[in-house]
Structures are given as C-alpha cells and as structure tokens.
Amino acid sequence: MLLAQMAFAMVSTAVEQTPTIDEPVYVGTAAVYVQQHDLRYNPEHPPLGKLIIGSGLLFAHPHLDPAFRGDQTELGRHVLYESGNDPWRVMLWARLPVIVLTLLSGLVVLAFARELVGRVGALVALALYAFSPDVIAHGSLATLDVPASGFLLTSVWLVWRARRRPFLYVPLTGAALGAAVATKMSMLPAVPVLLLLAVVSVWHAGRPDADAAPRSDARARVRLLGLGAAAAAGLAVVAVAVVWASYLAVDPRLRWTAPADLPSVHGLRALLIDRLPVPQPYRDGMRVQFGFENATWQGFLFGRLYSGSLWYYLPAALLVKTPLGMAALWAAGSVALLAVRRLRPAAPYLLIPPALLLATAMTGSRDLGVRYALFMPVFLAVAAGCAVVVRRRWAGIVTAALVLFVAVSSLMTYPYYLPYSNEAFGGPEKTYLRLHDSNVDWGQDLGRLADRLEEHYPHEKVWLVYKGAGVPSAYGIDAADPRKVPAERVHGLLVVSDTSIDKADARLTALLATSRPVEEVGHSITILRRT
Fold it and tell me: How far apart are CA 528 and CA 524, in angstroms?
C-alpha cells in the first residue's frame, strides 16, 4: 500500500509536469544513445542513468533527425519541440523507468530495515521513504539523482549481507556500486568507504573463534585481512567493469572525441583522473565536472541572493525541505544505531556513506537544491526504522504519530512535491522566499500555467519571464518578454517564475513593484497584473 500510493503520486505528477531544466538534455542524450549509439552528448554524466531513461524511449519512438548538429541543450529542445514529437508522451515514457527504479529502491529500504529491526521498523523506514516529498519529486523525473542514490543504498545493503555470505554478496556489491558511479560521478567519494566495509564484512564472516590459540588466532587474523583485501579488490574490479559496460552498451567501439572546450585540470584532481581505470569519456566527464566546480554560481538562501557558495547551504536547505516528523525520526534512529549494542555494527554502513557524501557536496560550488543530497532521505529512512528498538511505553505511540505527521504533510502537498517545505517554514507556498531553483521552481509548471491562462485569462495580453527548458508556445502560451520593451508598454498579465523573482535584476524588480499579485501556479510561478 505504501509503494502503491508512492507510485500513484509519482505517475500522476509525471503526467502533469512539463520538462524541468535538466530533463531535455538527458532525454535528448538518451535518444542519441538508443538510435545513434553515440557518446558525444552530456559527457559530464556517465551513461547508465540515461540508458535507463532510454529504455522508456524505446516505447515512445521519438523522431530524431540523424543530421542534427548542436549542443546538448539544443538537442533536448530539438527532440521535444522541433521534430514532430509529442513532448507530453516522450517525457512520460522517459520518466517511467526512473519511477520503477524508485519503487524498487523502496523494496531495498524495506529489506534492509527488516534485517536490522524486523517488520515494524521496516514499515516505518518504508513509510518515510514512500512519503518523502523530495524522493517523490525527483523520483518522478527523468533525472539521475534518485537512481544513483538507490544504487548506492543497494550496494551498502549487499555489503552488509556479505557479513554472512561474502563470496555471494561482495561481487553483487561491486555491481551495485558500479551502477551508482556509472550513473553519477558524485557517488565516487563513497567508493573507498564501500571497499573498507567489504573488508569489515569479510572479517566478520570469518572472524577467529574466541577459544582459538593465540598463535593460530594471529594467523587467522592475517589470513582474514588478506581475504578482506582480496574481496575489496574484487569488488573494485566488478564496479569498474560495470562502468566500462555502461559505455560499451552505448557504443561497442567506444568512439570518442573530447570536446573542444574541455576544461584543464591540474594538481591532485588531474592525478585522480589519470589514475582511474575508467574509459576516456568518463575521465573527460570528470574534467567537465571540475570545470563546473571552478565556476562561480548564484545561490539563494533565506531571502539572500549571493554569488559563490555557502558551506552550510545543503544542511539549511534540508532543514527547510524535510518533513518535521521525518527529521525527528532520522535523529532518533541514528542515535539508536549508535547506542544500541546489537545495532552498532550497522552504524558505519548506514551513517558513514551519506555523511561523507554530504560533507563532499557541502564543499561544492553549486547551491542549486537538495537534489545534490538526495541520498540523505534514502539512507536515513533505513536508519529511522531503528527508532522502534526503544523499549518505552510511549516510544511506539510517538513513532506512529511522527510517521502519521509525515504522511499528512506529504499528502497535503500533492501534487506539488518539488516546491515542498515543511510547516515550520510556511509550507510549499512559501518555499520561494527561502530557496530557489530545483528546490521550488525548475520549470515544471509551464503546462499548468497554460491551462490556467486558457481557463481564467483568455485573450489577455501575457508578459512572461519563465525559467525553464520548456518552450511556452508549444503549450499554447502566446507571451512576450517584458524585459525587452520599455516598462510603460507592459500592461496586462505579468507572469514570472519564482526563481526569476528571487534573482530579479533592477528592471524586473521595478516591474514587480508596480504590479499586483493575482495568484500562484503550482507554487512556482506567480501571476501578477500590471495596469
């Protein structure tokens, strides 16, 4: 039932939302993968996630001009809006495989938590996962964040199971870990942690008998360390093989020409890139990512627009966008993992990977959304399930009440999951006052805007400042940009994406100041009237 409501929420949301900013690039690249077997687009992300998206496109059959030449942004626009394809149909089929993978990751959450704390804890964990607004929001999009997080959690679950059957689960761990890093490069910092956890699991599986003689005990320990090191090496080999396989699945000949504007990378970063045993397109993709990190981006937090990045941005954004009951159960479950003796062995598996990834993401230069930390609600859902081990009369009642609070908060935001913020920060209608970009307004409501204009404001002059990858005219919106004409000519409806309000320049600020707000669309677009 939990996964069924999650599936309904994701599919019904996917049907209503127009493409977000990143999706056309991934969909266009997936179409090229499937039809032309060419790696030239979107090298900054490995192919596996886009191959998953492409599996849906096999049913959509989008037309793609073989002679098309343009950058990846132009490619996405070409596939969705310039090739005779139905953008609604193409996007739905592209999103469905990600939705399925998100639901399968929910089964991993359930199974992992059940092994740790039994059925009740497993249901608590699954409920938090299934009602997470961020997981629902991004799990219903043709993007890479939820698949990568799901693959990583699967690898951690499998290496935990290797404590009992290492020869079976260590190779499977390598496959899942390879899938994670073949989907998003941001999963790479977790690799050394998984290798160490493999050593720990092998050690646990064959730990010496407490009654063994000291000398034989020492030999057994050395042998176990050797086996652990061999297991870690085997895990790494399997993971690398999966990365190679993802590229060869696109182009068995692995044809690749580096982009002309490939950023130069020096120092330790260059050393890391040169030492990794991965295909050259992967290495060049890492160079592109490091180039992004060297750029200066704009951020927006609690009403402040700034250039650069803030180290505390992601924790602050998570504080705004995490349901209050969920945050409480995350904390309680994490404490239980550390405090309860029988759960303590699982703490490094569940807490270290997301903590390391969060610390790494906090050093990044792009303060663009909690999607850079989507592994948090995925991993901490399992940790939260451990809260049920507290043996107090009131503990079960409090846990149930918190889960119910999360469920109500999530259901009340339907179908506007992307701009969700918790009750302490005013709910989804106030999110744009504190956060921007993919936290609230990622271009997803262009179709809803078209319906609203047709229903409530037919035949009125529309001035539009839209932040997104969609093409307004493709949805029947006839609008002009108010920033390109004198202010005295701007009369009628002024429609502005909320991120554009957050980042408004002096000209747009003046137009907003002389306009009257009328209503919101999807908590991401504001309709104003200017007379």
Answer: 13
CA gap 7, 136 in Å, rounded: 9
Residue 33 near residue 159, CB atoms below 8 Å: no
Q: Residue 226's CB: how many other CB atoms inside 10 A?
A: 11
Residue in the block written with tokens 């990846």: 72
Give residue 334's Cα distance to chain centre.
22
Cis peptide before 415 (omega within 30 of 0): yes
Measure the CA–CA gap between 191 and 353, rounded to whole angstroms. 9
Helix boundaries (H) for 363-394 = 375-385
Q: Which amino acid is at 252?
A: P
Going by pLDDT thresholds of 50, 70 and 90, the confidence category of residue 510 is very high
* H helix intervals, 206-266: 214-250
* pLDDT number for residue 393: 79
Residues 154-175 have pLDDT tens digits of: 999 999 999 999 999 999 999 9
Question: 């929910």: which residue's tokens?
Answer: 106
455 burial class (0-12, 13-18, 19+ CB within 10 angstroms)? exposed
Beta-strand relationship, 492-497 and 304-307: unpaired
- Contact at 8 Å (CB) between 466 and 433? no
Higher pLDDT residue, 531 or 493?
493
Q: Do 517 and 526 touch, CB atoms closer than 8 A?
A: yes
Residue 217: is its pLDDT beyond 80?
no
CB atoms within 10 A of CB 21: 21
Rounded to 10°, the helix 145-161/190-205 angle is: 20
Please report the pLDDT score of residue 214 as a whole number.
Answer: 56
Its sign, for the CA torsion 56, 61, 62, 63, is positive
| Residue in 322, 330, 325 with CA at minimum distance from that of residue 425 | 322
Q: How far is CA 324 from CA 177, 268, 426, 427, in A?
A: 31, 40, 12, 11
